[in-house]
Amino acid sequence: MLTPEYPHGQKVVVKVFTLVGDIVAAHKASGFKSHSANRFCSWCEVNASDQHKLKLGCPCTKGKVLEAANHWKDTLSEFSREKVAIRPGVPWSELNWLPYWDPVLNLCQRQRLEVFKDQRTDNEEKSLHKNLEFNDETYFALLKYLKQSHPDLCDYSMLPNLDNSLLLRKLAKKLKSINWLTGLKLSMEAPKDFVKFKSGLNEQFGRIRSILDLSDPKIHSGPLIVLEEYELVKNREKDFKQVEMFLNGLEVAHMAPTQQLVFVAVSDALGSAAYLQLPAWSLGSRNISFLL
Q: What is the top-level taxon of the source organism (predicted)?
């Protein structure tokens, strides 16, 4: 195994606990020189000479770290390797052979975020077991929606960020239903999972995919409803006035999913639209029919 101390190789036994229990050993095994290098920080590219300026550097990326590590590996002499490693602070690590290894994500970012875990109270720890972890599509759609009211809201994984930064975490408490003070009742289960909501001056429909409580009043107070949006489709194949009379005044609506997620605050939800869903072509339309 090639290491900065043994550039010609040394037979070693690798144990995983060195990457978990010792920060210095973790940085060393992952290919960072840390405090002894000009770029002492494994999270960003700030130089040691600029520490007194208290300015944040550009975030490190997997590509730049691996490029610097390969430059060290391709340098032959031990003296030259030491000079090469001092500037970027990244010598070679055998872990770089792994195709899935991302030193910035798998070590630096994860290590940084886990620091906050020890600061949670017992009650907060218990509530985490009820939380829902977003997939990337939902997370970034939610971030875009919340940025409309909080332009300074940041992606939690972007580095570096200040201690007082407003971050959107990738966890939220998942609710099965809502019984709001205004009498609004919504649920993940039919038939109260189909919602009519305000969008500007218009009324739209959507099917509930999640009901979230972000548990951070600075970002959003009250539950947030994640809907799969449906749009009304104009039917040109048949006049349904007689059909609606036959159905004793029930409204027939033809809708199609837009394949888009929309986020609706409880204050914008007009209520659940009691419905009966009919298969396509039930009433002469290729779109899904709803009796509202």
A: Eukaryota
Give the SS3 label for residue 219: coil
From residue 87, alpha-carbon distances to 40, 61, 109, 159, 175 in Å are: 9, 16, 22, 21, 50
Asked if residue 34 lies in contact with residue 24, where contact means CB atoms within 8 angstroms, the answer is yes
Q: Using CB atoms within 10 A of its CB, is residue 115 exposed (0-12), middle (13-18) or buried (19+)?
A: exposed
Give the model confidence (pLDDT) of 95-131 as tens digits: 777 665 666 555 555 444 444 444 444 444 333 334 5
**Residues with Cβ < 8 Å from 82, sequence gap 6 or more?**
4
Phi, psi (rounded to 5 degrees) for 3: -135, 165
Q: Which of 233, 227, 288 is nearest to 260 (CA)?
A: 227
pLDDT of amino acid 54: 67
Structure tokens at 173: 């408490």
Provide, for the chain, the percentages of residues in helix, strand and coil under a 3-state DSSP scheme, each rounded to the nearest 5: 30, 25, 45
Six token digits for residue 56: 């944040």
Interatomic CA distance for residues 254 and 251, integer angstroms: 10
Q: What is the pTM of this model?
A: 0.45
CA-closest candidate to residue 224, choices 235, 237, 215, 233: 215
